């Protein structure tokens, strides 16, 4: 891939991620993405094909949870707890989190979201677990991760900012340890 193609592809992905995060999948058009990226709509279609394929790629390339999961398995619960505590107490959200929140309910998009969560969260956590049923235990941890988004959506960002940050993180760590243990 040439540098120009790489740069254009990156601009399209960033524009798509920002627009999907701001407006939701159903409200964003390929023309909007092209205009935001400063690219021709035919180029967007050539590089990514369908809007759903572009959504999947924007989701995959924008996620940062992998860096939280990676590392020493013994510290996984603490890393996940820290990530969630920060998300619950912060007013900031990642574009990928907002993309998931505003993704819509079409079966095609739900399948993309499920595949993304399975690949980036469940399977990666399960790979770090010893003992029986690692995917089931990883799925329990994923429910906590995804539930954080629901709580933020319902109650607003910074929903638990008045609670001691250390206490929140410690309780989340304990909950993750329970979910992840054999």
Automatic annotation (TrEMBL):
PANTHER family, sorted: HTH-TYPE TRANSCRIPTIONAL REGULATOR RUTR (PTHR30055), TRANSCRIPTIONAL REGULATORY PROTEIN (PTHR30055:SF235)
DNA-binding annotation, residue ranges on this chain: 29-48
SUPFAM superfamilies: Homeodomain-like, Tetracyclin repressor-like, C-terminal domain
GO molecular function: DNA-binding transcription factor activity; transcription cis-regulatory region binding
Keywords assigned by UniProt, alphabetized: DNA-binding
Pfam families for this protein: TetR_C_16, TetR_N
Domain HTH tetR-type: 6-66
Protein name: TetR family transcriptional regulator
